[in-house]
């Protein structure tokens, strides 16, 4: 195994262990020692990738956002894709689930949880700003307000889906969210061409994985940063 | 003081005490004994109004919804008003805040929190169904889906506002929410007449209070039920 690939795997193992421990014990009670035990790696390996418990939390947050999706000519389609894919991953990937749990953990007083929402907000702002520059948005749209609303609404929608049915209907709920939002922000010609179906997530994820397979280092900004430091 | 009025006040005192104890200790750890101490009422008085800890939680939930607002000819305007007023009360009334805290308390495993969302959902369904019957909604609107989305989105929006700035901008965020939603569900002639301003909450609350002053027993379904049992 190449050295870079090994570093990426170790980093992922540590993050998964940290996510599981945060999930079970809460961020405040969790210790680095427990995460080491769970991951089965040396202290040196952990501190090579993450300098502190907070950096581990940031790593878990980043995991939610760091996924390569196939680029689309419509930036609003990319926004929709990222929402649908996040819904899909929340159902299937414990690490992504833990990331949301951590952001919503009201007991984690010593963690700056606004950071998690901030990173997600920034990503939405960027996509919406690109959409605006391409003429995809109606003229009145305030990019920052819409991005913040999207982050808040998505958080609440997934929370209610978790409470009602363990997130089994989350993709459908995210479709309903976009169906209600997009007519207020997209120009009609773009709106008519958007694909907002629940089945799209699976397809987009598969396409993304193929691209990642071709260029592995592009999979995750976090992974790239850590491995290039090797 | 009339007997009915006294019963309403006692009930309110008990609910405020319960809300404070749930807020500080979490629902699971809170005991009836602590709530009695805090309220300064007898065990008999508490059990006259509430049969169990769970009934106290239901009472706290109901408080969020049981407020008389001035009726409007547009049912969508009533929907908007209830959202704006809830935002305002979340900032100013500890009991309403505790109600939301309880609904989002992930540690309250022995409490059916879906009930809180269910009651709120039902209220939205009713208003939207009335709006639909009056021809205020676009033909494709699925009342249940829209009501559930509204409950989820509002929950997330208030959560993010709490995290970012202790809910100081909550009314503005709820305005943004409605501005994004309503164009997808309201017929244009109704949409153009809706008042979705942040300042409206205060005005509507004041009008509601005047009406409540005239007919006190209509203030809260819970209060009515309890006092008529006296």
Automatic annotation (TrEMBL), chains A, B:
InterPro entries: ArpA-like, CprB_TetR_C, DNA-bd_HTH_TetR-type_CS, Homeodomain-like_sf, HTH-type_TetR-like_transc_reg, HTH_TetR, Tet_transcr_reg_TetR-rel_C_sf. GO terms for molecular function: DNA-binding transcription factor activity; transcription cis-regulatory region binding. Pfam families: TetR_C_45 (PF21935), TetR_N (PF00440). The keyword Transcription applies. Residues 8-68 form the HTH tetR-type domain. Residues 31-50 bind DNA. Keywords: DNA-binding, Transcription, Transcription regulation. The keyword Glycosyltransferase does not apply. This is HTH tetR-type domain-containing protein. It comes from Streptomyces viridochromogenes (strain DSM 40736 / JCM 4977 / BCRC 1201 / Tue 494).
